[in-house]
Specification:
Layout lengths: L3 E2 H8 L4 H9 L3 E3 L2 E2 L6 E2 L6 E3 L2 E2 L7 E6 L29 E2 L8 E7 L2 H8 L7 E7 L6 H8 L13 E5 L2 E9 L6 H8 L4 E9 L2 E2 L9 E4 L1 H4 L8 H18 L1
Parallel strand pairs: 9-13
Antiparallel strand pairs: 1-4, 2-3, 2-5, 5-6, 7-9, 7-15, 8-9, 10-12, 10-13, 11-12, 13-14
């Protein structure tokens, strides 16, 4: 691969500005393959160079992928004028300048949210052509009714007259007010509006799967983890909804209730 400037390499993987990188280099705070490099325009091999900035080693991968278990009260935005943004939950050492939420979760919703600086992956995720299914678990105000299943499969007509694509829903065993929902689209407040159209109310909502990428059981609300590119590809793998519900019913119902 062609060599790149050291300051470009660092700025793509951190939140440092190029002027700050130049200062750090001049002060001897940057090493490449164990040697201090004082010029930020030095060319390096991005695939093999070991770059350490202020004692922290940088990864060679160009892009970063963070899976966050979003808590309530945070908005999926990069603009602090919108409220408490989800980027505040990502540790500084995991953030990059171009990082953003790939998709949205309502302020009052919890669960799986991908943040990345990879625009191509985000575009693939959000493109209607890919139809990445998303699975949610909800706590309802009133018990789940079996007729919901057929109504969801036919496509719920919302109160404002808008019609949703066919979706799948099933009750959580031994929990009459909990249900799993699988959607192939992302209308504004869609899950809440779908149940409202059926005369019910969503009290709690957690997204537990993005395509084949399942929210890890041990990832607590408010915590995040870095994903490898090969893990991110799970986004584009199909999920067996019925098998998913059976396998994760106990895990996610406990997570929702306890949070």
């Amino acid at each position: 691969m062609a060599q790149v400037r050291l300051d470009k390499f660092i700025s793509e993987r951190t939140e440092y500005t190029r002027s700050r990188i130049k200062e750090l280099a001049a002060k001897g705070r940057i090493t490449v393959d164990g040697a201090v490099v004082k010029r930020s325009d030095t060319k390096i091999d991005p695939d093999t160079a070991e770059v350490i900035v202020e004692g922290k080693s940088l990864r060679t991968e160009r892009y970063r992928y963070i899976l966050l278990n979003k808590p309530q009260g945070y908005v999926c935005s990069t603009d602090e004028k919108d409220g408490e943004i989800v980027l505040k939950l990502i540790p500084p050492e995991l953030r990059t300048k171009g990082m953003f939420p790939a998709g949205r979760l309502d302020k009052d919703s919890m669960g799986a949210l991908l943040l990345t600086d990879d625009g191509e992956i985000a575009h693939r995720m959000l493109s209607p052509r890919h139809h990445i299914p998303k699975i949610y678990i909800v706590q309802l105000a009133r018990p789940f009714e079996n007729n919901y299943i057929n109504k969801f499969e036919k496509g719920i007509e919302l109160i404002d007259g808008e019609t949703c694509l066919p979706a799948r829903v099933c009750a959580v065993e031994n929990c009459e007010k909990l249900a799993f929902i699988e959607l192939h689209e992302g209308k504004y407040h869609q899950v809440r509006r779908m149940f409202a159209a059926l005369g019910n109310h969503v009290e709690l909502l957690m997204r537990v799967s993005l395509g084949g990428l399942v929210l890890p059981e041990k990832l607590a609300i408010g915590q995040c983890m870095e994903l490898l590119h090969k893990d991110v590809e799970n986004l584009f793998l199909p999920n067996d909804f019925e098998a998913f519900c059976k396998r994760f019913s106990a895990v996610f119902s406990a997570n929702l209730i306890n949070n």
